[in-house]
Specification:
- By secondary structure, the protein is of the alpha/beta class.
- It folds into two domains: 141 residues; 252 residues, 3 Solenoid (UDP N-Acetylglucosamine Acyltransferase, domain 1), CATH 2.160.10.10.
- It contains eight helices and 34 strands.
- It has a nine-stranded mixed beta sheet with strand order 6-7-10-13-16-19-22-27-30, covered by helices on one side. It has a five-stranded mixed beta sheet with strand order 2-1-3-5-4, with helices on both faces.
- A hairpin with a 4-residue loop joins β33 and β34.
- α6 packs across α7.
- The longest helix is centred in the middle third of the chain and has 21 residues.
- It is globular, with a radius of gyration of 21 Å.
- The termini are far apart.
- The mean pLDDT is 92.
Length: 418
């Protein structure tokens, strides 16, 4: 079959996570949707916003061409399967999708009026891959597909990554242990080749396993409570506490106390400080002593604010949503349920949401714009530290992210000192 992971109109509702990241590459439960489809034997094509096409192609991700051709149909004569890129990457959920798709029966699954899955015959008209997400919605509406009954989950808001992460992590770790090669070095502790567990570590696996990917290392005197997943070449430093459902991306450095959180690749949180029930994008750096609150003083459920609109989560524990390339200074305190935009630098107490591309020191009465040229130079230095080459497409993506978030800085609720 020909699988296309498509971004719909609601993908911008996931800002700041999806400013510079395809929805199909959001980690939840230790997998992205794009990775999980490949692990299950499929090679998906991503239909994404135009500003993401170049970097995804450079990262060897198959991207639907912008000229409206049929190249996204890598298997002629096979059904076309459109999967919403906001589908939760839970292996049980994705297997249900693929099972329905393999039956080849045309139909669609909608959730609150949004298409989550569409299965079309091989002779279906070409998909408008050079069009906006709205045109894809219109395209599907014209196909008059009958309803399918498949139980699916979509990520509707950024906090839904945290909501769906625990169940997805449990399912996905179980699948990893059945289908990948690990050595069990302690009760419920599984390591891939080259992974190391330091001396005098304490592990608890009665709630779920601890899985270390190739090259991952855990320093001495650490406490780990499963379920937990540590990506390849990730480093957990000495005396860290990783507990209650943590997913750590590859090539990260993590210290302090982390609970119930998702951390994307190349992020640094190597100093002491608490991070709970949060999502951290890639290339984030948290200064020493940075902490966040994930519980209100009233013990009530948390309301988030997105684009000036309050959204009830129904969740008691919600921490911070931190976009790619964000930085915090030492001893930064982040209040419950706050979002920090991409490429922002944060100082002091974070009592409000932070726009993208700003220097945020509200405690001192200052919120200034962080220029894209500064972020380009910072990116180059960060990449060099990890032996990653800065490509022209990486620089262009930063400029696109800056323009896409210009409205955030204009509507931030307080004047910027520019």
């Amino acid at each position: 079959m020909n699988i296309v992971l498509f971004e719909d109109e609601q993908v911008t509702q996931l800002y700041p996570i999806t400013i510079g990241r395809a929805a199909a590459r959001i980690t939840c439960g230790s997998f992205t949707l794009w990775e999980l489809c490949q692990e299950l034997g499929e090679r998906p094509t991503c239909l994404v916003r135009p500003h993401l096409r170049e970097t995804l192609t450079a990262d060897d991700v198959a991207v639907a061409p912008a000229d409206g051709s049929k190249e996204y149909r890598s298997r002629p004569g096979a059904p076309l399967v459109l999967i919403n890129a906001r589908l939760v990457p839970n292996v049980a959920v994705v297997e249900r999708v693929l099972a329905a798709a393999r039956l080849g029966k045309p139909g669609a699954v909608t959730i609150d009026g949004v298409t989550a899955l569409a299965i079309l015959p091989a002779n279906a008209p070409p998909l408008p891959v050079d069009a906006a997400a709205a045109d894809v919605t219109n395209y599907l509406a014209l196909q008059n597909l009958p309803p399918l009954t498949v139980d699916l989950l979509l990520i509707q808001y950024p906090h839904d990554v945290i909501r769906h992460h625990p169940a997805a992590l449990a399912e996905n770790l179980s699948w990893r242990l059945k289908h990948k090669k690990y050595n069990e070095i302690a009760d419920g502790v599984f390591v891939a080749e080259g992974a190391k567990l330091g001396q005098y570590c304490v592990t608890e696996t009665d709630r779920g396993p601890i899985v270390l990917e190739a090259g991952a290392s855990i320093g001495p005197y650490c406490f780990l409570r499963g379920p937990a997943h540590v990506g390849r070449n990730a480093r957990v430093i000495e005396q860290a506490a990783i507990k209650d459902g943590v997913s750590i991306g590859h090539t990260t450095k993590i210290g302090g106390e982390v609970e119930g959180s998702v951390i994307e690749a190349y992020t640094n949180k190597q100093h002491h400080g608490f991070m709970g029930h949060s999502y951290l994008g890639s290339w984030v750096n948290l200064g020493a002593g940075t902490c966040n609150s994930d519980l209100k003083n009233t013990y009530g459920t948390v309301n988030m604010e997105y684009a000036g609109r309050k959204v009830p989560t129904g969740m008691q524990f919600v921490g911070a949503i931190i976009g790619d390339y964000a930085k915090t200074a030492i001893n930064t305190g982040i209040f419950t349920g706050k979002t920090i935009g991409a490429c922002s630098m944060v100082y002091g107490f974070v009592t409000t949401n932070v726009p993208s591309f700003v220097n945020y020191a509200r405690l001192f009465g200052q919120v200034t714009e962080a220029g894209v040229d500064v972020m380009t130079s910072t990116q180059a230095r960060m990449f060099a530290r990890r032996n990653v080459t800065q490509r022209p497409c990486d620089i262009r993506l930063l400029h696109d992210m800056y323009e896409l978030t210009r409205h955030e800085r204009q509507l931030a609720g307080e004047p910027l000192s520019l």
